[in-house]
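User: For a reading group we're discussing how well predicted structures match intuition. Take Glyoxalase. Before you show the prediction, I'll give you the sequence so everyone sees exactly what went in.
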Amino acid sequence: MNQRDLLLKELRGEAIGTITQYSSNEEAFQNQTLRPILKLQNDLFLASFENYITKNKKDFYNLSTEKKLLLIENSIQKDIKFRNALKGIVIGLFTLEEYQTYIQNSSNLNKRMMNMLIERLKSQIQLLDK
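Assistant: Thanks. Here is the predicted 3D structure of Glyoxalase, as structure tokens, for the group to look at:
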């Protein structure tokens, strides 16, 4: 393992969630790689979403909580440029080995990644109120 990979793993910390012999490869990747990265990058995700709503959804702060939650979900699922920027924030912290694993099953892992990110932002909606 090269210096970059060691530094990334040390920076991210331990796996989040249980990994057993019965865990699927996707579940193990999610808990070993995706969850720690999402946690580490949380403040950047919040700042990115705040920037997104400032540029694209100026009325966000006037919406009801239900509509805000829906907007979070729709923004990440339907705005391909924004979605790709968020994926880049995560993928940039993969080790080379993790990247090789990711490209083997990127479609399913992208779904997991975006669903976890949507739930993370929704759970912190109070931080998005001005």
